[in-house]
Amino acid sequence: MPTSEQQKRNYVYFQQILPELLSDSLKIDKYAVIHDESLKGLYDTFSAAYRAACAKVSGDFIIQQIVDESTVVNYLSPAVSI
After folding, report:
1. Angle at 22 between CA 15 and CA 46, to 5 degrees
2. Per residue in 31-71, pLDDT tens?
3. Structural domain count of the chain
4. Residue 47 within a domain
5. Considering the entire predicted model, what is its pTM?
6. Residues near 62 by Cβ (< 8 Å), separated by ≥ 6?
7. Cα 8 to chain center, whole Å?
8. Are 4 and 60 in contact, with CB atoms under 8 Å apart?
9. Domain for residue 73, yes or no?
């Protein structure tokens, strides 16, 4: 499914508020529901965030985990030789 323009705007909004969210240790690792370029709630698990988003918002939304992306290590299968 292609990303909608609203989802892209929601993601840009999330990137803008991420530093503030990361500054509060109680919010780190939570899942944020973003809808209409607004934070709709924080949840402990992805599934709780998804259920809440489906129940509370209409239209496109995104769910993003509040993590410092500079500390996330990604491994691409072509880059790993066993």
Report:
1. 75
2. 999 999 999 999 999 999 999 999 999 888 999 999 998 76
3. 1
4. yes
5. 0.81
6. 7, 10, 11, 14, 33, 34, 35
7. 12
8. yes
9. no
